[in-house]
Automatic annotation (TrEMBL):
Catalytic reactions on record: (sulfur carrier)-H + L-cysteine = (sulfur carrier)-SH + L-alanine
Keyword Iron: no
Aminotransferase class V domain sequence ranges: 25-414
Protein name: Selenocysteine lyase/cysteine desulfurase
Amino acid sequence: MLEPTNLIYGHSQEVPTRRGPTPYINFDNAASTPPFTRVMEALCREARWYASVHRGAGYKSQYSTQLYEAARQSVGKFVGVDFDHDVVIFTKNTTDSLNKLSHYLPFLSGEQVVYTGVEHHSNELPWASKDSYCIGLDGYQINLAETESYFQANAGRIKLLAVSGASNVTGYIPPIYTLAEIAHRAGAKILVDAAQLAAHHPIDVLPPSDPRHLDFVAFSAHKMYAPFGVGVLIGPREIFRHTPPSQVGGGTVQGIGPAGVVWSEPPDVEEAGSPNVLGAVALAEALKVFREIGWDSIIENEKILIRRTLEILRELPDVTLYNPDPDNRVGVISFNVAGHHHLEVAQYLAEEWGIGVRSGCFCARSYVQRLLNLTPTAIYSAQKKIINHQPQLVPGLVRVSFGCYNQLHEVEKLAQALAEFQSRC
């Protein structure tokens, strides 16, 4: 593991607190990650050669096109894409990717999308206009028995299973390859929202002939230490070839005339306008850094942080943990302190200690409401508070989320801060 000061751009940056400036501790990596230093260096190096891609005859245009397409190949290699079958499309972020896919997948009358009880809004709301079914939970985990039973009973009717690769609320990692087999046996495809998984665990989409093949995968560069506006959508080339694009304009057409529109081939057909070349370059460089650090190192460091943080939170009085299991998870830990609003805890950590965590529902309100056992009356009350511009009064959680650069001494500082909060507040 590289030293964080060298690995992360701005890692030693001091922030103001009530006690004076202090080095920032970022425990909000599930929301977004800071850039790798190497990513910043790559951006500065390649920006001098930047020009519009694909149709420019000039040297810089040709060079930028090579960079952009090389980045696409790097992303595909990172997750094991077979480019003869699948395509890598650059988008704005995971949310954009999932919305594009909801446009592309045609649903006939009676066809259904199934999603799970742990989903982020971005993998729930795009399917709201479809006939949909939500798989329930067994504790903090997806109920596999219910999933198997439902797919068997509705084989041929279910079009898609949409599932998070890792929960942004509890860190739980669903068994995506088992779920892929269940979906495929019923004639459905699987979509993995890998926004919270891609920076923590290796992903292999596997060959299309494999029953565990991941048909669609989406993730964001800004959660992978390249926060410059690029997302990824991976899926079968043929699906994007036979449906008009979700956005039309420059780059999406090969010709227009009396015979109609001749659409470009994927991925071009779904990358309308001038693409984010430098964002793609940033992601490609970040993937190089991941390979150099190594997954074993990343996973082992995260396990140490998870176990110690769970231990600390269990030892503190009046703390409720949401998913206390140290295994089968990424470094996302949510909790509450009895008698204190989640925002109060988060603000204290930030203002007194320079520790950045997140509080609220994390764009997963359906899941958080279930975790809090909110009644329909309580949910309605929370909605009224939002309508009345009082979101700070809505029930929620405090979330700590780790990056590959976080260290044990930062967790110990969190322990001190929480103990002090409980003694003073």
